[in-house]
Amino acid sequence: MEALALVHEYTENPSLRRHMRSVEAAMRAYARKYGEDEERWGAVGLLHDFDYERWPNDDHAADQEHPSTGVAILRERGVDEDILDAIMAHADYTGVDATTRMAQTLRAVDELSGFMVAVALVRPTGLIGMKPKSVKKRMKDRAFAAAVSREDMTASCEALGEDMTEHIAFVISAMQDVAGELGLEGRA
């Protein structure tokens, strides 16, 4: 399975693609840190929202289509169950607990990387030179990226067993490595 080809097949929105690529970068970095398989962890990050554009969640629906629809597609393509479990667990409403380090990491980097994209978009230098202090300052501003749950970001970081400031710095570094690909290297 070629993860990037699947993303391009199902997702046209450039912002959603950027988000998935950001999560992939963070997952790869954590795989290196934890001595895990970087390709597998990167695939989890890249694929976790590939179905979201076609099957977005309806806040009033009893059965949410994302990520279960995507997981069903991936299962048909022979993707390993640990990857599917991590993808299901990244959304707390699925009822699937994040019991593996891969799933816990996906939860911890998903919301945070999205939040950091928002922070980067309002900075003249984008991700370049971003520090945890500026991210934490924006986290305190509830009007900024209001849809992002600060409580979820904090709880998932704690569940992973990482210090929040160090976690933010780690994810910033991972995303800076792909800032050009993300279009977040700042404005000239």
Q: Output mean pLDDT.
A: 86
**How much is the radius of gyration in Å?**
16 Å
Top CATH class: Mainly Alpha
Q: Count all strands and give the number.
A: 0
Described by strand count, sense and barrel closure, the largest sheet is:
none
Number of helices: 10
Order of helix and strand elements from N to C terminus: HHHHHHHHHH
Query: What is the CATH fold-level name?
Result: Hypothetical protein af1432
Overall structural class, as computed from helix and strand content, comes to mainly alpha
In one word, what is the shape?
Answer: globular
Overall number of domains: 1
Which stretches are low in confidence, meaning pLDDT under 50 for 5 or more residues running?
none
What portion of the residues fall into strands of 2 or more residues? Answer: under 5%
CATH architecture: Orthogonal Bundle
Euclidean distance between termini CA atoms? 38 Å
